[in-house]
Structure formats: C-alpha cells, structure tokens
Amino acid sequence: MLKHLSAAHAPFTRFFGYGIVFGLSLVLGSVLMAKVPYENEQIEARVALMNTQKTALSVLTDMASGRRAFNKRHARDAKNTLIETTKGIKPHFKHIEMDAHTLARPNLWTNWEDFELRAKNAQRAAKRLNPRSADTLRQSLPAMIKGCHSCHERYKLQDREFTTH
C-alpha cells in the first residue's frame, strides 16, 4: 500500500521539488544580480546624468521612429532635459574618478580638450533639436545621436550589462 501511495504522489513530489529548486534559483539569482552600492558619489552622479540623458533620448528616438506617438510637450521636455544634462557633462567628469561602476576610459582625462569639445558639440546638438513635429524631430535628431556616439566611441568602456544606449 505504501508503494502505491508513493508512486501515485511521485509526479506531485517531483513537480514540488522542481518548484523549490526553481524558486531558490530565482532568489539566489536576484541576490547575485543585485547592484552593489556606489562607493563614489561623483561616479554615481555621472551614471545618473548619463541615464537621464539616455531616457530623454529614448523618448525622442521612439517618437521619431513611430514606436511612440509624437507628443510636442513630451518632446520639448526631453529636449530641455538634454540641454540641461549636456551642460553637466564637463563638471561631472572634471575629476579623475575610477571604480567598478565607471564606464569612463582613462584616456578621457588625458584628452580633456577633445572631450570638452565633444561635450560642447553634444550640447549644441541638444539646443538644435526641433520638437515642433515628428518630421522636424527626425531631421534634427541624428546630430544629437552623433554627439552622444562621438564621445562614447572614444571615451566609454563597453557596458558590463545589456543596455540600449
């Protein structure tokens, strides 16, 4: 009789066992993937600045590509965010700060004048964004993207995690 009960409950036991293993894997994976707190406030501020720019640029690229409905107010807000945050590039990177969170290459500081010029070009491109319509946005957006990529190609390490910008 005991063998009969064990055999009858084997699928449940097996399923339950797999569920526990899966659940523990999720918990352990979450713990291992948790972000380590920033040790350096300047680097944390730089990362926040770049993430703010990435978010604003994503709003504009989504509108320009048709993935998001064009909204003039939202486009103007994203433009203003890019104008303000590009002003902060030079001050946020002025001091040589490196830790596990930074994606800045050390050559950024040895080529400071070039970096400043690229940051200034990104700010000019942000000011020239034209959010009056989806068409004018599409025409003005490539210069902004080029401004971002110009710096990133030369002064940014490869991301350590999947990002789109």
UniProtKB/TrEMBL annotation:
Gene Ontology biological-process entries: electron transport chain
Record key words, sorted: Membrane, Transmembrane, Transmembrane helix
Transmembrane region(s): 15-34
Gene3D superfamilies: Cytochrome c/b562
Domain of life, per lineage: Bacteria
A GO term for molecular function: heme binding
InterPro entries referenced in this protein's UniProt entry, alphabetically: Cyt_c/b562, Cyt_c_II
Protein name: Cytochrome c556
Organism: Epibacterium ulvae
Higher taxonomy: Bacteria, Pseudomonadati, Pseudomonadota, Alphaproteobacteria, Rhodobacterales
